[in-house]
Design brief:
CATH superfamily of the largest domain: Spore Coat Polysaccharide Biosynthesis Protein SpsA, Chain A
CATH class of the largest domain: Alpha Beta
Distance between the termini: 103 Å
Bound molecules: uridine-diphosphate-N-acetylglucosamine, calcium ion
Radius of gyration: 31 Å
Largest sheet: 18 strands, parallel
Oligomer: single chain
Structural class: alpha/beta
Length: 476
């Protein structure tokens, strides 16, 4: 096995994105395009990956070198290409960093959906001694380099669209931009490239004719799935590849038995805030309704049901739990957990550090942050639990809140087991409501209460019998 060195061209401008963000940092499934390509280096167990940067080089390098998950286990280097004089010129910049004993795989930073098996087949076709091109046949090959074959079918050259004759433009087999070649052959060909062509650029594709002239065999590994070599040039193309990628992820889950109401309306994304990979790990008989978005790592236990339109990030949802529609769960870094058989939503919000036990009920417009709810606790309507420890079977009334923030610091609220908190209460932290206690509706509780006590902290009711409201004065 020859060692593999991956070369990724990422110096181009990406004018048609009309964005300040360099094209290769545009995100697909929450992950920069370039990082999708670098994943290939990891999948192929490459020895090294060299990224050729130019436009937005500083940003591209910072966003990539810092991302622990990009090119895991691969020696990652950046080489600058300034100015950008063409794809051949780009690869030339990497030559001083390439070891002679390896096979070089050239990829583009804006082509995110190539499958590892395809690249393995390409490397196998190169076999340590041939130039192997990844090609595809397109109904409309406009703009691409055409694969010119001789009478015997052998590849003779790649001719760029702008340099092609009418007859050559009729060829529908195109060069994908991806090739594999032994490093020791590549360097001498690059040195011989010229820019005498329609675009005045040094074309990497000209090495094909040089290989043929040198008697080095050129092979084409032709695939049928055009998505694998599709590049991103515009927001529309980015969205098209996003849908294709998401459909792949949806299918993979469905093959495991997950029931998605509609695989076309399902998204799994990396968490762009932390770089945590988008991943949904499912037990048996999980059902997910339409338009749900999963971010980071999400675990769904056996029999979990997710209603329509939920956004769930960095969370563990245990067996049998039901997440009703329009629920927003975001564990961020701390994570969020939902216990077995719990019912959450519709319109509920779980934030970082929300830990719900078994059979907990969280109803509509209830927000939970950095709070533990023990088994059987319920907060069913319009409530806030922040920095709270809630005991078993607690019933937390509609409209009640923990006042956890004094303007400078956050404090904890402890609600012990079997407490009933009435509606519209304010529990001013730090405060503890003793086990089995009751808090009367409308109370503002500022002092801890004893177990079993009824606590009422509100103005006493006054009723004046037969009171008549003021009458309206006639206008003068
Ligand atoms: C290139 C191929 C063409 C192929 C097509 C597939 C050449 C000459 N042509 O064409 O045969 O069908 O890809 O998409 O190679 N880049 C640099 N530095 C440069 C120029 C480009 O890093 O100086 C990078 C771009 O950022 C991009 C990649 O190389 O990632 C390809 O460049 P692009 O201009 O898109 O190539 P095409 O002209 O489309
Ligand atoms: Ca070009």
């Amino acid at each position: 096995m020859t060692p593999l060195d991956i070369l990724i061209m990422a110096a181009g401008k990406g004018t048609r994105m009309k964005s300040r963000i360099p094209k290769v940092l545009q995100r697909l499934a929450g992950r920069p395009l370039l990082h999708h390509v670098l994943d290939q280096a990891t999948h192929l167990q490459a020895r090294s990956a060299i990224v050729i940067t130019g436009h937005g080089a500083t940003e591209v390098e910072a966003a990539t070198a810092g991302a622990a998950s990009a090119a895991a286990g691969v020696d990652l280097k950046f080489v600058r290409q300034e100015p950008q004089l063409g794809t051949g010129h780009a690869v030339q910049q990497a030559v001083p960093h390439l070891r002679q004993d390896g096979t070089v795989v050239v990829l583009s930073g804006d082509v995110p959906l190539t499958q590892a098996d395809t690249l393995r087949a390409l490397v196998a076709a190169s076999a340590g001694e041939r130039l192997a091109l990844l090609t595809v046949t397109l109904p409309d090959p406009t703009g691409y380099g055409r694969i010119v074959r001789g009478a015997d079918g052998a590849v003779q050259a790649i001719v760029e669209h702008k340099d092609a004759t009418e007859a050559q433009r009729a060829i529908t087999e195109i060069y994908s931009g991806i090739l594999a070649v032994p490093a020791r052959l590549l360097a001498p060909w690059l040195a011989r490239l010229t820019n005498h062509n329609a675009q005045g650029e040094y074309y990497l594709t000209d090495i094909v004719a040089l290989a043929v002239a040198d008697g080095v065999p050129v092979v084409a590994h032709r695939i049928t799935d055009a998505l694998q070599v599709a590049g991103v040039n515009s927001p529309l193309q980015l969205a098209e590849l996003e849908r294709a990628h998401q459909l792949r992820q949806a299918r993979a889950l469905m093959e495991q038995g997950v029931r998605l109401a509609d695989p076309a309306r399902f998204d799994v994304r990396d968490d762009a805030r932390t770089g945590v990979r988008g991943e949904v790990v499912c037990g048996q008989d999980v059902e997910i309704d339409v338009n749900c978005i999963f971010t980071g790592r999400v675990e769904l236990g056996e029999g979990v049901t997710i209603g329509a339109q939920c956004c769930i990030a960095n969370a563990r949802i245990a067996a049998g739990a039901v997440i009703h529609p329009y629920t927003h769960i975001d564990g961020e870094k701390a994570g969020a957990t939902v216990g077995e058989g719990a019912l959450v939503g519709p319109f509920a919000r779980l934030r970082p550090g929300a830990q719900l036990g078994r059979d907990v009920h969280i109803g509509n417009f209830v927000e939970v942050k950095n709070s533990t709810l023990a088994d059987g606790a319920k907060a069913n309507h319009l409530a806030y639990l922040g920095d709270a420890t809630v005991g078993e079977r607690v019933n937390y009334g509609a409209g009640s809140i923990t006042a956890n923030y004094d303007g400078a610091n956050k404090h904890r609220t402890v609600i012990e087991a079997d407490v009933h908190v009435g509606s519209n209460c304010v529990l001013v932290a730090p405060v503890t409501i003793g086990a089995g206690g009751t808090v009367g509706g409308g109370s503002t509780i500022t002092k801890s209460t004893a177990p079993g006590a009824l606590s009422v902290a509100r103005g006493k009711q006054v009723s004046i019998a037969n009171w008549s409201r003021p009458a309206k004065q006639p206008k003068p």
